[in-house]
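Structure, all two chains, one model.
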Amino acid sequence: MHVRLCLVLTLLLPVLVVDRIEAQTNDEIRFFETKIRPVLVKHCYECHSTIEEKARGGLKLDTRDASRSGGDTAPAIVPRSPTKSLLYESIQYDDAEYPMPPKGKLPDHVIADFRRWIEMGAPDPRVIKHQPNAQSEIDIEEGKTFWAYQPPVMQETLELKTAGWPRTEIDRFVIAKLDEHGLHPVPDASSEVLIRRLFFNLIGLPPSSDQAVRWKRRMDAAIDEDAKQAVVAELISELLDSPHYGERWGRHWMDVARYAESTGGDQNNIYQHAWRYRDYVIDSFNDDKPFDQFIREQIAGDLLPIADEQEWADNVIASGFLALGVKLVGEEDQQKFFADLVDEQIDATTRAFLATTVACARCHDHKFDPIPQQDYYALAGIFRSTETHYGLLKAQARQATTLLDLTGMGPPPGTPKLDQKELAALIQERDDAAQAVTDAMNRIRSGENVFRGMLRRLRSQRDETEAALQAYSNRGEPRVFAMGTQDRDHVMPTRLLIRGEIDKPAQLVPRGVLQVLSPKNRFQFNSRVNGSGRLEFANWIAAKTNPLTARVIANRVWHWMFGQGLVRTVDDFGFSGDRPTHPELLDYLAIRLIENDWSIKWLVKEIAQSRTWQLASSYHAANDQIDPDLQWLWRMRHRRLEAEVIRDAMLAVSGQLELERPVGTFLREVGEGGVGQNVFEPVIRAMDKDVRSVYLPRVRNVLPEMLETFDAPDASLVSGARESTSSPLQSLFLMNSPFVSKQSIALAARVEDLPADQQIDALYRLVFARSPTSHEREIATNYLATETKPETPSGRFLGGRFGRERFAGGRFAGEESARRGFGGRFRSSGQMSEQTTESETGQEFSVLASYCQALLSTTEFQTID
Amino acid sequence: MSRSWIGRLVAIASIGLCISVSGIANGEEVFVTIQRVTGNRLLIVKDTGIERGGMMQGGMRGGMMRGGGFNGAGGRRGRGARISGTVNGSSANSAITVTIPSTAKITSAMRERRTFEFRVLNELPGGLRHNVFKSMRQPLKARVVTKDNVIMELNVITGETDINQSGNRASGEPVIAVRPKRPPMKRTSGGR
């Protein structure tokens, strides 16, 4: 008996198990595939399918489960029961509640096919299983009542107690608050202070002594306040027209855009082409590009209509904003890497332009703001459908990508042309590197043990030399590469991920924007949106109706002018951020900014001309009791300058500052690779050219020492407000840094030919843009009269009389190879330090230089009133 | 041979078959060679034998698959031998038509150069409309992941290890930059 049973089991089991779910016969499946599916695709999917991101009436017909569960009303298909199937009822058309398809009734034989199919049991091979949909409990409509999500409102009339004080509309808002809190504004700043303040705020450089004297004379000669303000306006205009304005304000924006020239993270690979975005930002500020256009170009520049090739190239470079972020390029899991990349883009975009922390909703609904997880994945769908091109070499980074080739489109190359000899050398270097890999592989194949690290290094060198060669045409002309974005050929359907985990996908989320900032039910992109949707997203952010965008940038500009925003948390306008101290003023600025064609220069001028901004920074005990944090603006904030400005100011007063913009990046001298692997940290740190600090190498975690010491951000995140710390390291740096010593010596050289009684005055005018007080003059005279040579600190630059020519020219060895941006790069720190110390030793550090160093180290030099 | 011996033999055989079939049925991934792609249907041949790297862990149950008469040749396998008809001495499987659900995740994949570990890469934009399938010139190696009889993922071994696009020219040189796609021109009468 059991033998028969076993035989039956043996024969049946494969059938039972393997074809367990093959309940549908091949004929039935064929019937579906030939008769039913084509009709569904042609007539139904347009409004009821995942691929079109549409589910009219909550119904989808592109899966079996969805068809059977139906939409808002009833199951679309009930197997073996055509009369209960809403789909069948609809396609019959006559007397149907929802006659479908809307464009016209289907032929009778097609309707008959559907009936037959349903009677068969509606065989359908499109089997899927939906994950449970994640639901949000956030009440969006209630969230819209928060101040930041309300449209800005222009307050028409302000009743003022102190009617004579305001000079501009801004002052009216400020004095109203001061009156309300029983505060009295301090007097206006002196001409000297105001001039220095304007120079540093607007162009990030100190006024030369000539400029200081000339503008002071004109301001003091004004017959009344209106005349003086006319001179001030003239000075503001002159500074705004200066090319250095873009370098100063572009640097502000680069903090927000987390601009850096390396990936950061575990490997910290160098971005060799990030500098193009840097120059784009500087040019945009100099050109006073309307801020809404600036937004569009950075998010979707590659998609904007163009007039010519140059504009195309500039727009593509602008989209580098999305490619500059921190990346863990050593990540093995490509899907995780991609999810993190998209997350970083969402975070940077929403923080920078909307001061909203959308990225918090990656794993769950936002804890404070009305941003459900669906909103995050709606944005993720946009960025997932975008290619991000940031370069790197495969042998050095697992997650390398291509760059964008802009050769011949207008932008200048970042490297000089190669002559035939150099090109031949480069080809030879590439061939040698390739041969080295081949040799190593042959040794491995022959059984020889080759150290795997060496093989990796050889492959890296081969790819590096190959990339270096590809950066030139056959004639040695440099090609133009850039970082940026492109739309993918297809939209990537995006699923909400439970807890943000890649292996826990839930429902598909159509692409769209934030619900809380959109009219009800108008936050999803419709199916006509082609491409990734970045352009629509950029237009939505840059729209005049977006309640956040203009407010956020107006607040940022206010912060950069005053040292503190009207909303102190400049990167967070959400529930956990601060509330505006002057909401009406913020709305006024936002609305006026839009009315003035989103002109940042207009806004800067508007603020700089206000009496509030021109107040002195003097102390007032009674006011301080009421408002120690200066939130009501009764005086100007005394604040330390940013790291870059201090450095630039030192170079400027010492006469060493090279004002020309360098071509490309200094990092081309170190080549491709990760810091600590192919590129050495001390080499990067030693790249101390006398250009403006905005052009210095900006490698994450390897900032120039001075910038790092004085709180320059590391560009890991959007950073609208810098820290301003005070630490002993800063003082020690000023006392011992070769850079400061060098500037001190150069500064001394500028005045040492003057008669002794004029040296001190000249130094004060150069360093502080004012004359010394009698007390200061007395101290200086006594010190210089000692004639005692100061102790020479170890490693200090020594020298008495330094001519300008000493500082000109390249300091780096290997100039020839460095020009080409490959090979011959500094692979060890020793080469650099040896070069530096050899050239600078044997000189005398004079008393005057020591005094200059003391002046450069003062608080007054590093701060503005 | 007595009836009891026959009975025992059959019992052992059926237990063995039960174990092997249930092993397939409970498996969640199967390695296949894609022969042809038509719409959302793939003509595949299940890979047999032990893959280098030991990734053959199970089978794919039916439901999504139905038999066909195609007896196609395999594609390139691992790092070398081209298979045709037989694998490791056993007969190649017959081709099966598989319908890929629209919600299945379709990704590229690769085998790690040294360990042959199967590594899933990024999603292919467009899914089965991606160029990998549209301009398919030779069979593609792939892994099919199922869960509860449903195909959840299709991981296709392609030349695409770049998260954006192919990293090599036909000549074998790495591509380090691509030309951007041209956007529309501005209308002459338009403003900014």
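DSSP finds 34 helices and ten strands in chain A.
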